[in-house]
C-alpha cells in the first residue's frame, strides 16, 4: 500500500530520536485487580511489582499478571520482571480467571487434548481474521493433521501465517481448545528447522463473508470476562519513581547490546549502558534513571536509584 502504520508512542519516540533523545521511558496501562487502574509513564527496567504497588496494589491476595492484552498477552511467571520497550500494559487477574487459565495450559497436554476433542466444526477457520483476509491459514486443518497424528508438512507451514490473535481460542472454538497455542508451538518448531513461509505471489482476496464474520469487541470482552476492567483509566498524576531498574540489553530486533558499564559506575538518565555490537544490527540501550550500577549480569544492567 506504500503506507507505514505506527502507534502514537513510536512516532513520539522517533521524533525524540531525531532530536538525539534516547528511549528511556514507556507509557503503559495498569489494569485489572488493582486499587487505582491507570496509565503511567514508567522508566524502562522498572519492576512489575513496583508498578503494581504504585497503582494502589492488588485488590486480591492471590493474583497473576498478564503482560499485554487479554488475547495476545502472556502470563508472567513472577512480578520481579522488568518493564521493557515492548511492554504496553499489564493486567492483574485472579489465578482462575478465564484469560489466565487458558494461557498456561501445558503445551503437550494441549496437543494430546486436541487430537481427542476437536470436532472439526471449522469455526476457528470461519472466524480467523487472517483467513478472512484471504491468507491460506486453515486452523481446523492444522488441528485435523494433529488428530491423524501425521502433521502434514504443507499444512503445518500454514501455522506461519498465524498472528496468534487468539480469536479461535477465546471466541470461536466451542470445545475450548486452542488452535492459537498449537500454531504457536508449530511456529517455534518450524523456526528451529529454519522453515519460512514462501508467498505464492497471488493477490489476496477477502473472504466474501468477511464483513459478516467480524467479532464485536463488546461481545469478545464479555466472553473473556474482562468487561468489568474496561475503566478507561487516566494518566497518573504523580510521577512513578522506581527504587531499582533492571534494564535488559536485548529488548529489540537484532543482536543484544554489549554493556558499556560495570558494577559501581555512576549512571545518569539517558547515559549509554549498552552499545550495538560491531557490524551487527541492533539498538543502543540507555540508563532510565539516575543512580549507581549494581550489577551487569545475564544480559541485564541493574541500576539502583540515587
Ligand atoms: S490465533 Fe491464528 S489461527 Fe487463531 S484466529 Fe488468530 S490468526 Fe487465526
Ligand atoms: S473450532 Fe475448535 S473444535 Fe472446531 S475445528 Fe476448530 S479447533 Fe476443532
Walk me through this protein's architecture:
The chain is an alpha+beta fold. It folds into three domains: 1-86 and 235-241, Ubiquitin-like (UB roll), CATH 3.10.20; 107-224, no CATH class; 243-306. Helix content is 28%, strand content 17%. The strands form three sheets. A five-stranded mixed sheet has the order 2-1-5-3-4. It has a four-stranded antiparallel sheet with strand order 6-12-11-8, with no helix packed on it. Strand 3 and strand 4 form a beta hairpin. Helix 4 (107-117) crosses helix 7 (139-147) and helix 7 (139-147) packs across helix 10 (179-192). The longest helix has 14 residues, at 179-192. The chain is globular, with a radius of gyration of 22 Å. The model has no long low-confidence stretch (mean pLDDT 92). One iron/sulfur cluster binds next to helix 5 and helix 7.
Give a concise summary.
This protein is 28% helix and 17% strand. With 306 residues, the protein is α+β, with helices and mostly antiparallel strands. Strands 2-1-5-3-4 form a five-stranded mixed sheet. Strands 6-12-11-8 form a four-stranded antiparallel sheet, with no helix packed on it. Strands 7-9-10 form a three-stranded antiparallel sheet, with no helix packed on it.
Oligomer: single chain
- Cα separation of the termini: 49 Å
Average pLDDT level: 92
Number of strands: 12
Largest sheet: 5 strands, mixed
Tell me the overall shape.
globular
Q: Which residues sit in consecutive blocks of at least 5 with pLDDT less than 50?
A: none
Order of helices and strands: HEEHEEEHHHHHHHHHEEEEEEE
The portion of residues assigned to helices is 25-40%
| Helical run tally | 11
| Strands ordered across the widest β-sheet | 2-1-5-3-4
Query: What ions, cofactors and ligands are bound?
Result: iron/sulfur cluster
Radius of gyration: 22 Å
| Number of domains as seen in the coordinates | 3
Q: Report the structural category.
A: alpha+beta
Strand content range: 15-25%
